[in-house]
């Protein structure tokens, strides 16, 4: 759980079949909203 003022820890997400997203390194702005949507399984 993050509290107000905490920094996002470094982690990598697998997106698609061969792409990855490194957070927060791949975010190019000072502020961002990250929404995780699991979808319907």
What does this structure look like?
The protein is mainly β and about 40 residues long. It is built from no helices and two strands. The protein has a two-stranded antiparallel ribbon with strand order 1-2. About 0% of the residues are buried.
Query: Quick check: average pLDDT?
Result: 87
Radius of gyration: 12 Å
What structural class do helix, strand and pairing data support? mainly beta
Output the helix-strand order: EE
Strand fraction equals 15-25%
Number of DSSP strand runs? 2
Q: Unreliable segments (pLDDT under 50, ≥5 consecutive)?
A: none
Number of helices: 0
Give the proportion of residues in helices: under 10%
Shape: globular
Give me the side-by-side strand order of the main sheet. 1-2
* C-alpha end-to-end distance: 26 Å
The major sheet is characterized as:
2 strands, antiparallel
Helices, strands, pairings?
Blueprint: E1 11-15, E2 19-23
Antiparallel strand pairs: 1-2
Descriptive tags:
single chain, 2 strands, mainly beta, 41 residues
How would you summarize this macromolecular structure in one to three sentences?
The protein has 41 residues and is an all-beta fold.
């Amino acid at each position: 759980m993050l509290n107000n003022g905490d920094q996002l820890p470094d982690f990598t997400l697998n997106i698609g079949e061969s792409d990855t997203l490194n957070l927060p390194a791949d975010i190019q702005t000072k502020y961002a909203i990250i929404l995780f949507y699991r979808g319907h399984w």
